[in-house]
C-alpha cells in the first residue's frame, strides 16, 4: 500500500510540472544551431524575420520562406532549391524554451521520421 501511495504521489508531482514554452520570443532574431555529424560538430547560423530565414552553413548561404502555423509551429520552404531534396518542405515545432534556447522537432512534410535539435538565440 505504501508503494502505491508513493507512486501516486510521484505521478501527481510530475503532472504538475509544465515545460516553459515562450515561442513568440523566438519568432525573429539571430540564431545558432549546432549538430554532430559523424562525430564532427557542425554549426549553422541563421537570421529569421517574420516570413524569411537566411541560413549560413559551411560558408554557403541559403534563404527560405517561413510560414507560421501558430506561435510554436512553422513551415520552411527554400526559395532557390538546387535539387529535389532541397525542394522538400520542412515542418518545425518548438517543443519547449528555456532562457535563450529552444528545443525543436522537425521533419520533411510527408515523412514520418522526426528529428530534434537545440537552437540558441544570439541576440
Feature tags:
single chain, 123 residues, alpha+beta, Lipocalin, 53% strand, DNA topoisomerase IV
Structure description:
It comes from Flavobacterium capsici. With 123 residues, the protein is of the alpha+beta class. It is built from 2 helices and 8 strands. Strands 1-2-3-4-5-6-7-8 form an 8-stranded antiparallel beta barrel. Strand 6 and strand 7 form a beta hairpin.
Helix-strand sequence: HEEEEEHEEE
Overall outline: globular
Radius of gyration: 18 Å
CATH class: Mainly Beta
**Order of strands, widest sheet:** 1-2-3-4-5-6-7-8
Structural class: alpha+beta
Q: Count of DSSP E strands?
A: 8
Mean pLDDT: 88
Q: What's the oligomerization state?
A: single chain
- First CA to last CA: what distance? 53 Å
- Beta percentage is over 45%
CATH topology description: Lipocalin
Task: Give the proportion of residues in helices.
Answer: 10-25%
Just name the CATH architecture: Beta Barrel
| Poorly predicted residue ranges | none
- What is the makeup of the main sheet? 8 strands, antiparallel, barrel
Query: What is the count of helical runs?
Result: 2
Structure described in brief:
The protein is α+β, with helices and mostly antiparallel strands.
List the helices and strands and how they pair.
Blueprint: H1 2-16, E1 29-37, E2 40-48, E3 52-57, E4 60-70, E5 73-78, H2 84-87, E6 90-98, E7 101-108, E8 115-121
Antiparallel strand pairs: 1-2, 1-8, 2-3, 3-4, 4-5, 5-6, 6-7, 7-8
Protein name: DNA topoisomerase IV
